[in-house]
Write a structure and sequence with these properties.
The chain is about 5% helix and about 50% strand. By secondary structure, the protein is mainly beta. Strand 12 and strand 13 form a beta hairpin.
């Protein structure tokens, strides 16, 4: 996986739909495509990733044990106005995908002990346009995923700004990675 290596050039990361209701433990495979890297989540094999979907107008949350070292990856749905929060508790990391973006909701997360990993609503880079003449749809959104390094005791949230262009007539599409930001968070000391 190019996206897991700091030495390899990253590509936009695109997640296929998670099986079932979405939330939970999966085995992850990566498929290199011409202009993106596809994440394939399956129930087959040893679970090494956790996927957290979003919920319109609400917050979703998961807990990942840090003591077992079971998961190497965390994935969530694309962000175009949402935020990602985390806190450590009882040798676990709790991660929230928040769809609401007002100040009161942010305050509630802070009061509950959560720290902000990334807020896409603070950016004006999420865009969506459709050319009615050509039916070309252009969108920019954020993809946030995390690598859990149990040896180094750090979770590294990676924030990709991705541009996606899709031709509504030919169905041809292209992905472009605009930039990547890393947010490393050390595990708490035992």
């Amino acid at each position: 996986m190019g996206n897991a290596s700091s030495q390899a050039k990253q590509k936009p990361l695109v997640i296929t739909a998670a099986p079932g209701d979405g939330a939970g433990a999966y085995h992850v495979n990566f498929a290199e495509k011409a202009d993106f890297e596809q994440v394939l989540l399956t129930k087959d094999g040893f679970p090494d990733a956790y996927y957290l979907p979003w919920n319109s107008g609400n917050c979703t949350e998961c807990e990942i044990s840090l003591s077992k070292g079971q998961f190497d990856y965390f994935f969530t749905a694309n962000l175009s106005g949402c935020s990602i929060w985390y806190k450590f508790e009882n040798k676990q990391i709790k991660i929230r995908h928040e769809a609401r973006t007002d100040k009161q909701v942010h305050w509630q997360h802070s009061i509950a002990g959560f720290k902000l990993a990334f807020d896409s609503s603070a950016s004006d880079e999420c865009t969506l346009t459709v050319d009615e003449a050509t039916l070309v749809r252009t969108a920019q959104f954020f993809m946030v995923y995390a690598l859990l390094d149990h040896k180094e005791k750090v979770i590294e949230f990676r924030v990709q700004l991705i541009k996606h262009v899709r031709n509504g007539l030919s169905q041809a599409e292209k992905y472009e990675l605009i930039r990547v930001d890393n947010v490393p968070v050390p595990f708490p000391r035992d």
